Amino acid sequence: MSTTTIDTLRFATAGSVDDGKSTLVGRLLHDSKSVLTDQLAAVERVSADRGQDAPDLALLTDGLRAEREQGITIDVAYRYFATPRRRFILADTPGHVQYTRNMVTGASTAELTIVLVDARNGVVEQTLRHAAVAALLRVPHVVLAVNKMDLVGYGQPVFERIVEEFAGHAAELGLPSFTPIPVSALVGDNVVDRSAHMDWYAGPALLEFLEDVPVGADPSDAPARFPVQYVIRDGEVRWYAGQLVSGSLRVGDRVTVHPSGGGSEITGISVLGTEADAAYAPQSVSLRLADRRDVARGDMITAGADAPALTQDVRAAVCHLADRPLRVGDRVLVRHTTRTVKAIVKDLAGAAELTANDLGRITLRTAEPLALDDYAVSRRTGAFLVIDPADGATLTAGMADLA
Prior knowledge:
By secondary structure, this protein is of the alpha+beta class. It contains 7 helices and 24 strands.
């Protein structure tokens, strides 16, 4: 078991255009005292130049000049802040349909996603699209933040109607559960401090929930997965370096090297140049094996009986990221952990093609076996990228479905 305490929460915001994502994040930073004096002064200056009476807190995250001029978010803005109880890494993602791929980028490593809804408009198409992405990426926790409650008189019936409608779609999208919170990002109701305007709501403010929500399972408790990144030759001795992405390994453990299937035993572990008896995810380490076998970059070393699936037929849910369409018959590269193999697109679940920001399903045939886990089991070893072999551009992000 790892002795480190997981005290950092990665989370992302999502929602339709103008639902108030950037304002919510700005309010969260401002009211939690996480904004530097010069940052706040710059926001106040820009807001005053625009003729606004109060600081536009959305400017704390809308950092690109194009975003500030248009008043929208078109890129993923990352921010880091902390409270006495937890550290946070947040990603404020775009709301437009054409930037769904940016939302995928922001949410891919998140343990929680905040889906915003404008209380005046209720659940719209982009709300459901972003909920579908959260379900697709297996984000462990989802918050439904019903924003702009001040503009609907803080009405409980409005909130309950939106929650009921969202709940009806959540099950269809494969979203097992969510936590609804009524907020006003502009005024600050239920963001950091509980609202005095909604005494009918007995739940936590958003920051309270973020501080208390359980952060994901210790990766060292999962089956051991060690993708080899490179081979270090020290005379007659070979060390295999990389990151232990899940599980733990000890000197003396019997291991299997995939895709060859050859067995061996760990005779040495080096952590930061120091010999150790054990290694725990997510440490970067070097391993020495008992026998000199043919192990190369891209191989996967595992321990225990719970081995990954070796397959050349890869079925997956995907989000297409590139402007170039993806079609059946396309020859591509598949990059999984440290391994890259040739592949061909066999099926797109009936679709003629996938274009930028499309969500879909894909079947690939790879030239060599991949040691895959189901994405539902492991987000690290169940994910892969589809690459254009001509220029190395990323085409599609895939989540393996081995069921």
